Amino acid sequence: MKDKDLPNYYESSSLEELTFEANKIIKYLESQKDLQNSIEKYQNLLKLNNIIEKKFKKKFIDIKTITKEKISKTILKKNNAKKTK
User: Fold this and answer.
1) How far is CA 29 from CA 2, 18, 43, 48, 63, in A?
2) Which residues fall within 8 angstroms of residue 70, CB to CB, at 6 or more apart?
3) Measured between alpha carbons, how far is 35 from 39 in angstroms, rounded to an integer?
4) I need a labelling partner for 74 at 20 to 30 A (CA). Which of 23, 25, 58, 64 fits?
5) Are 65 and 21 within 8 A, CB to CB?
6) How far apart are CA 49 and CA 63, in angstroms?
7) pLDDT at site 10
């Protein structure tokens, strides 16, 4: 599935906005009696899910990096404090 088939604003949207959009598509699909006519919506939902997953992974990496930096700074401060005693 190519994400580029989706509107560009999906890439710049927040996770909350993307989740809201996915929920709208899900509600639409659940209300349909004949899903044969909803194939395009379902494919868009799958693509949207891929974008959400990528954003979660990026956010996870960002949080992990920030946490590592904070831990390193704390350890460095602690080691410096021990040396000055």
Assistant:
1) 21, 17, 11, 14, 34
2) none
3) 7
4) 58
5) no
6) 21
7) 75
Q: Whose CA is closest to 11, among 52, 60, 57? A: 52
Rounded to two decimals, the pTM is 0.69
How far out from the chain centre does Cα 75 lie?
31
DSSP 42: H
- The reported pLDDT for the residue numbered 1 is 43
pLDDT at 5: 55
Domain boundaries, the chain: 3-84
Query: Distance between alpha carbon 83 and the CA centroid of its chain, in Å?
Result: 43
Contact of 41 with 28, CB cutoff 8 Å: yes
